[in-house]
Each structure stands twice: as C-alpha cells, then as structure tokens.
C-alpha cells in the first residue's frame, strides 16, 4: 500500500507555511545545512518542541548534541498549532485512575503540572518573546455536559489540590465569549496560550547558544544501531552518535515502524481573520483567554496579539489538506461567531499532528540507545516540551518520569498501518455525527 511522505505531501520543502505565525515570527539567525559526516554524543531527530527541548536540556548537561530537522526549526505542528498550554494529560484524571491506578494517576497529574511549569520557565529563563497569556476556557456546547465539567473542576480542586480552576455557568460563559453557542464550562487560569512558532524559535536559539549544532534541510532516511548509532541523511551524509532521540511526532511514520503502529498522523487546520480592533475582540473573548470546546472534533480558538481571531476547527484523515483551507474552517467559526461572517480571512493553514488510540502520548525506549516520545494528540505544546527534558533525563540515566509515561498502556491501531486510516475514518464519522446530536 502507498505510504505518503507527510514531510512533502502538503508543503513546500524548506519553507514555512503561509500562516499567521510565520508572518509574525521573530527574526532568528539562520541555521546551517549538514555539509559533512559528523560525530556527537547524542543525535536528535526533529526540530519541534520535543527535539528542541531534548537538545537544549542535553547540552545543558554537557552532552555534545546534533539536531537534524528535515525542513526548518518549528516547521511542523510545533509552529502551526493552536498555542494552548493546557492542564493535565490528554485524558482526564478519573479516566487515568481507572487506566493506571491512583498512584500513577497522581504521578501523571504531577508530570502534567511540570509541563506547564517548564514552558513558563523556559520563556522566562531565555527571554522568549511569544505572547504568553494566562487562561483557557473549556466551553460545553451541550447543556448535558455542564454537570460533568463542574464535577471535574471540583475533583481537581478537592482531590488534586488544584485551585486554579473554577466552574462557569451559562450566563457567564455567554458574556465571556460573546456567543450563545455554549451552556457552561470551566475556566483554568493555571493554563495559558502563546505564539507557538516564536516559542519554538526561542527554544532553537537557546539550544544553539548552549552548544547544540542544529542542521536544517537534513531529512533523515534511516538509522542503524550497533556499537554506535548511525543516522543517514538524504544526500549521503551520516551522523554517528552514542545515543539517539526521536522527536518526529506526526512525521515519524516511515522512520520507525515500531512506534508508527501506535502513533498516527492526522491533519488539523486554523484560520486567522484580519485584525478586529479592541472593541470587537473584547466582545468575542472578553478576558483574552484561549477557548477549547466540548465537540469531539474540537473547536479551539483565541485572539492574537494584534487582535485577530485565530480559529482551529475540522480534521481530515486523508493524506492531503483541503484545497481551500479558509473556506473549510470558516463554517466552524461562524457556527460560534456568526458576527464574523463579513470578517476577512487573512490566513489559512494546516498541520500534521499525531494521535494515539487512547490519546495518551507514547514514550518508549525503542532500543537500548534509542528513545522516542510522540503522539501528544493535540495536547503537545506543554507535554512535548517536557518530553524533551524527560528524554534528556533518560539519556543521562534518570528514568523515573520516563518510566511513568512509558507505563501508560497505548494500544496499537487495529489493522496495522495499512488499515488504520479506513478504520479511523469510520470511527470519526460516528463521532462527527455525535457532535451534531
């Protein structure tokens, strides 16, 4: 069966997509291309949050690190996503308690809290200008969901000691978002949102200053393990290292089949309106928080620093992006905000992320010299960043947090790589119907 190369299926090689994030990216000095065979202590594949964080934390521990990025740093989902830095894991704590038991569920909560902390710490420590703002509003699009949302907020406060979240009723949420689409929800002020590409570029600059050799336009074709790890790059160059870190997420498919059986790429899409002005922006999201709603195919949105509506909605499970992303996403936005019908859409872009069957990230020591973390399932800004630090710990011999994450059961997709897409499409069709009921 034909397997697409997601690195080239929808994007121009070596160029950022025509997104709002790319148009408002901070200037960063360019990175080198790989000109000769090289050696190092650790080679990291992938220039997104996972790889950049891994490389930075390894370099700070004294390792000689090379990072290889097939296109540009922050080129993939790390530079295209909704920018939400959420609390908890991708699954809620009551589900995790049943999945892994109370003790490990508590550890998973603590790790998730560390993931937010590390984002804020890196922004502060490296003076990364990425428009950090506090607050994520969970918005229920069905009245029957509100009771469960409020009970979960109570659970986090009473059982996990998390006092940054509170319940929101129907009248308040409609004032907060300027829409009658929602019936209630919860507001988490311990979470937040940022400009993801600028955060990635800031991590890359920090890693370079720490001594990491970052090479762009360095697509890895394969790797081999033995006494050393040998990584082959398109064009014939090789890197020889003691250890390998895989931070490829949705672009891993052809490189490591043992991970790809449990981690699948999907496409997601965002549009950005023209600047709306202070008054309309405040009407739409009164408190400048990010919003994520209860639809299974989630709507997620927020205001940019220059008061654009950045709205993400819709998923596809084919290999290719829609031809007209702006008109693909716009109906999702208008369902929430019909008052934006005449707003000009300045940008529309897609990205490839990775999901797992149970939406929990997949951490594995694939071989003794090879560590991998991926499959963040839309919850990756914070968790992918922390995953880099966790894998740096593991390379250094400290496995505690890595083992907690690796012990979470992540099943294979049924049907293997050849049938996982058709089966997922059937499942997603059912869930999309459920969203309408």
Automatic annotation (TrEMBL):
The keyword Oxidoreductase applies. The keyword Oxidoreductase applies. Keywords: Oxidoreductase. Pfam families: DAO. Residues 41-393 form the FAD dependent oxidoreductase domain. InterPro entries: FAD-dep_OxRdtase, FAD/NAD-bd_sf. This is FAD-dependent oxidoreductase. It comes from Thalassospira marina.
């Amino acid at each position: 069966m034909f397997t697409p190369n997601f690195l080239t299926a929808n994007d121009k090689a070596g160029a950022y997509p025509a997104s709002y994030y790319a148009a408002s990216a901070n200037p960063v000095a360019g990175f080198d291309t790989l000109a000769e065979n090289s050696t190092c202590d650790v080679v990291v594949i992938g220039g997104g949050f996972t790889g950049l964080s891994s490389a930075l934390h390894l370099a700070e521990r004294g390792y000689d690190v090379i990072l290889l990025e097939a296109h540009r740093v922050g080129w993939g989902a790390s530079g295209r996503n909704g920018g939400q830095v959420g609390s908890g894991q991708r699954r809620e704590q009551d589900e995790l308690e049943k999945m892994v038991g109370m003790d490990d569920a508590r550890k998973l909560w603590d790790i998730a809290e560390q993931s937010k902390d590390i984002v804020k710490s890196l922004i502060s420590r490296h003076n990364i200008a990425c428009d950090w703002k506090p607050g994520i509003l969970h918005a229920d699009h069905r009245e029957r969901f509100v009771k469960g949302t409020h009970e979960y907020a109570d659970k986090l406060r009473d059982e996990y000691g998390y006092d940054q979240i509170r319940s929101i009723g129907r009248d308040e949420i409609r004032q907060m978002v300027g829409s009658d689409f929602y019936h209630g929800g919860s507001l988490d002020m311990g979470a937040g949102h940022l400009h993801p590409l600028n955060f990635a570029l800031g991590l890359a600059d920090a890693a370079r200053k720490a001594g990491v050799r970052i090479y762009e336009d360095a697509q890895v074709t394969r790797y081999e393990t033995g006494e050393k790890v040998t990584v082959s790059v398109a064009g014939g160059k090789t890197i020889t290292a003691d250890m390998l870190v895989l931070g490829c997420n949705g672009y891993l498919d052809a490189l490591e089949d043992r991970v790809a059986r449990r981690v699948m790429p999907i496409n997601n899409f965002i549009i950005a309106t023209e600047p709306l002005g202070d008054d309309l922006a405040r009407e739409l999201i009164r408190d400048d928080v990010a919003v994520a709603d209860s639809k299974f195919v989630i709507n997620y949105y927020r205001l940019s620093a220059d008061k654009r509506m950045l709205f993400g909605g819709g998923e596809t499970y084919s290999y290719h992006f829609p031809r007209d992303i702006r008109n693909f996403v716009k109906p999702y936005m208008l369902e929430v905000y019909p008052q934006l019908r005449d707003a000009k859409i300045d940008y529309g872009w897609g990205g490839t992320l990775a999901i797992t069957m149970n939406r929990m990230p997949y951490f594995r020591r694939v071989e003794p010299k090879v560590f991998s973390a991926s499959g963040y399932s839309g919850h990756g800004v914070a968790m992918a960043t922390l995953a880099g630090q966790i894998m740096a710990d593991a390379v250094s011999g400290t496995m505690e947090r890595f083992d907690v994450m690796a012990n979470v059961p992540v099943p294979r997709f049924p049907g293997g790589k050849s049938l996982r897409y058709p089966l997922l499409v059937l499942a997603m069709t059912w869930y999309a119907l459920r969203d309408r009921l």
